[in-house]
Amino acid sequence: MPTLALARSNAVPAPSADLPRLPPAVIARLPLEQRLLASEARLRLLCAPAGAGKSVLLGQCARQTPAAVARLWLDLGGRSLTPAQLCTRLAAALQQPATDVNEAALLEMLQAHSGRLWIFLDDYPRQPDGELDACLDRLFAAAPAQITWWVASRRTPAWNLPRLLLQGDLLELEGQDLALDEAGLAELLTALQLNLGEDLGQRLLQSSEGWLAAIRLLLLDADEDALRQRLQAGCPLLRDYVQREVLADLDDELRSDLHALALLPRFSAPLCEHLLEGRGSELLAELQRRQLFVRRLDSSGTWFRLWRPLAAVLRSLPGGLVPAPVHVRACQWFARHGDIREAVEHALQAGQVEVAVNYLQRFSQEQLLQGHSVAQLLQWREELPAWLFASSPRLIVLQAWALIICARFDEARACTEALTHFLPQPDARRQRKLLAHWQALSGVLARQCGRRDARQHCLEALQALDDSGWSQRILCYQALAQQYLAENALDQARQALDEGLRLSRLHGSLIYEALLNTDRCLLLEMQGEAGRAAELAEQSLALLRGRVSHSPVVGRLLLLRASLLARQGLDETARQAYRQGLQEAEFCEDAYTISGYLGQVELAEACGDLDEAYQWLQKAERVMQCSHVPEVRYRGVLQLQAGRLLLRQEQYGRAREVFAQTLQQLQQRQQLAPSGFYDLLPHLRRYLAVSDLLLGHHAAAEHALRLLLDECQMAGHRSLSCECRVALAESLLLQGHDEQAEALLQQALGEARQLRLLRPLLELQQRQPQWLERLLPGEAGQSLHQRLFQPPPTLDEPASAGTALLSSRELAVLQLIAQGCSNQEIADRLFISLHTVKTHARRINVKLGVQRRTQAVAMAKAYGLMGD
Prior knowledge:
Layout: H1 30-38, E1 43-47, H2 54-62, E2 70-75, H3 83-93, H4 103-112, E3 117-124, H5 130-142, E4 147-153, H6 161-166, E5 170-173, H7 175-178, H8 182-191, H9 198-208, H10 212-219, H11 224-233, H12 236-247, H13 252-261, H14 269-275, H15 280-289, E6 294-296, E7 304-306, H16 308-316, H17 323-336, H18 340-349, H19 353-360, H20 365-368, H21 373-383, H22 386-389, H23 393-405, H24 409-418, H25 428-448, H26 454-464, H27 470-486, H28 490-506, H29 510-526, H30 530-544, H31 552-566, H32 571-587, H33 593-606, H34 610-626, H35 635-648, H36 652-668, H37 680-694, H38 698-715, H39 718-734, H40 738-755, H41 759-767, H42 769-775, H43 784-789, H44 798-805, H45 808-818, H46 823-830, H47 834-848, H48 853-862
Parallel strand pairs: 1-4, 1-5, 2-3, 3-4
Antiparallel strand pairs: 6-7
């Protein structure tokens, strides 16, 4: 570490006049300067491409050299230099005899130096030179600790950087570290006295990737219109800069290789080997050594791409490679390695449409759930001749699944009808297979549209699909589970999901397992096991993490996690989670974005910001309409939220009209709830009863709530049962039945605490704050969330006593014991070992003070853990 004790310096600090002149409109890079100046590393290396601002940043740091520290500045100009020449120049800068100075003599001079010294070497030689690099490496190791080296270089020198890094002697800034960000761009625009719209500024940053030279050249003598033209058509000044500063020092082969890589969205060493006939690995290493604008795309250092501005310039230069052969070879490589989406894209870039369609036939339903595949496939569908996509049953089926994912049901239905053009098939086996695919598509499509015939289609498809159609079988099991969830048949839904999960694991499909777990989480939430649902959502995200970069399934799981946070009243955490989930769902163009918008509606309403809530509601409707999503997928849930907002505004009559009309329309059409909102109909019934209650129709409201409560209890829908109890308690209170109301609310409070369910109590607090405050007291300033989930021990009701005794996993085991499940069945359902089940059962008995399983169930019911 450099010593803080200062001694007399033998070197004379260089005057500022010897430092490089700062360019006009220079900006302060304060975070970078502070990072460099605060470091105690003996080597501070700025290793970045041309035009990244290395010399200016080095000069800014040099100007802040402490007064008691000697400073030495050498501009090496990027030119080749022998070790002896470097040593001679350093000796001269130290004002020592500079005749025939070798490495040993220079080292003696440095060791004789008694004070702190900063040595700045700007523009280190650009051509690789093993002897020079070895000389500097030895100097770093042998020089006194009070000497700090500052080096700016366009290439990565062959120094022992890992050793220096491990010793804490290296701070390295690379091109991405030096890239300009939004704050830096704003400062530069102020210095240049330019005003850009936010969208244009973002576009400039994105196209330049923060490359300072590119930004300054694009902005030179430009207004907004000129900048837009340069971003669209290219900038002659930037092209000239690239040719002089980047390409001039390269040999013909390396320039040709760069032109090839500029045509690729991404590349790896094996792909380069295929493209460049065996010199790919050497090329990649050379590009990284020379800092030729190569950007890593993953943490493992497998995939790279060229910086966008350099790639754009290379593609525009005359004399580059003909693109078609490059894309053909890339297409071959990606197809050989199973990346069909990129193989298709390169085939289209090469102009080989029929080859692209041939590869499309290999696309699987599983691949549609990864990345931007759905949007990409539908874009190809728009751009290519229609007859190509209608040329085979396989392509028609693939389009239909993609259209279902983004909820374009009318177009998906047209695809299923197009399959009839291929009937009859040449033999019975292919005839059965095509009909099975039609049944599977029809079943899933019917489910998404809320039709009751979905079950029959799916069951018939499951009977006909063979092992080769395992992915369609999984989707049929999911559609069946969703149908049962919408019908409140929760046990049957669980059985269908179990079958789908078994198939997913049998075929090692993590993406399908996670897809099914989205509905499994909703089932657990309905059954009152929100803790297990949150745990399963996290497990599913962990399964996909590192394996899938983007996916509609990831978006759905993130939105589900947000919903589970919101139900507990953790509004700020839920709001951040909704933003993350919406970003992923929008990127993948998944119709489940609507659940994110509606979640934001509920959060805004909970905060009392009804204007924001209506804005989110309007945005949800607009996005669904612009995405061509049919109303059957979203209209009912939008009306439910609109009615809730009217209730909050105390417009009870209008709210009742909305709930009644929406419920009547769904019932008349015999339409089930859309996916993701399986309890839409019972929620409409509950809010209709609440509207009647607030309008003074107490008896009618009580009757409707008791009927709905009985149905929910029979189905095992504990979350909605709790919400019904809260509303029913309010009904009894308004009718003057105070004792019954308090007893029922106490039971609901215990259940809400166990279920981690705050939403119905928030609504009650808005209407009956004093009553709820009396029955759920807390300390001054405590939120409803704190009062419910962090109650004082002395105030625990009997219903919550068992909750305090038993963990969430023990409660899950107890629920399954009550259903008559064996230990092995419990282990299979909870994905735990048989030994763990027995341990949980033993602890349950001890905590509840019983001897047998039947006694544990009875005691749990007495505590209110098992419902009525």
